[in-house]
Amino acid sequence: MFFRNLTLFRFSPSVADDLQRLEEALGEHRLRPCGPLEMGTRGFVPPVGRGDEAAMTHAVKSCTLLTVGAEEKLLPSAVVNDELQRKVQKIAEEEGRKVGGRERKRLKEDLLTELLPRAFVRSSRMSAYVDRKHGWLVLDTSSRKSAENALTQVREALGSFPAVPLAPEEGPRVLMTDWLANGNLPGGLALGDECELRDPATATGAIARCRRQDLDAEEVKEHLRNGKQVFQLGLVFDERMSFVLGEDLVVRKLKFLDVVLDELGDSQVDAAAEMDARFALLTLELERLLSKLEEWFGLPRPE
């Protein structure tokens, strides 16, 4: 269950104390199936196992894993609009009149009521964990909207959860541009083989994307000399993990290298034991990475 992306929030030590009741709070906000006339539902599901008896969290030391679930009805607007158009055309042919805006709206609402119970349901899951000791909320997504939706679910379950977005004291774009242009990378950090460079002067400025590219190549340096800055940069940390870091400090394409995976050893005897081993390894590795992000970019923990 290794995360592939990291969207990060921070919270204070006083907030961390309140997270002791996370298991109970999430249990009161379990994901329930979509009702016949509902477009979707959100809630929490057990990270390990299934059923009402399964725990809603999985803890290793100060880190607690949780899973946000959702069910969403698939009812494409094109299907609704086509059916609505057929109804409007039928009224025009049979009654010899045009359908006004108010009646069209009512017909569409009736159609939704008719079609929703027959719509397919799509399920989704997002893993996340809280690190109470260091004040991190880590979500396995690169989508800001999805992360905010998950954070809202946690807030609703707890009643209050004042986790805040990262507020770097060092500008990520400027710092990563210096890393790439001048090779001034912090110890333990090496360039990967991917970057996105943009001209920051205008919103529609030129964009250069490099993949499977030697980032020390002259053509990359030429883009930087022409005024482009780094918006995403592929990096390798301590030869243990690779990722692409964005100027929004979202970690994308996170991949643990073989030296880390080899530490898992043989398969565990059951799903719970394997989850425990993987989550312990994940949080241990990310604790080191997050502490370095905090150091490099100046990411204060709220008081």
Automatic annotation (TrEMBL):
It holds the Pfam family RdgC. Keywords: Cytoplasm, DNA recombination. The keyword Cytoplasm applies. NCBIfam families: PRK00321.1-5. Belongs to the RdgC family. It is found in: Cytoplasm, Nucleoid. The keyword Membrane does not apply. The lineage of its organism: Bacteria, Pseudomonadati, Pseudomonadota, Gammaproteobacteria, Lysobacterales. May be involved in recombination. This is Recombination-associated protein RdgC. It comes from the Bacteria. InterPro entries: RdgC (IPR007476).
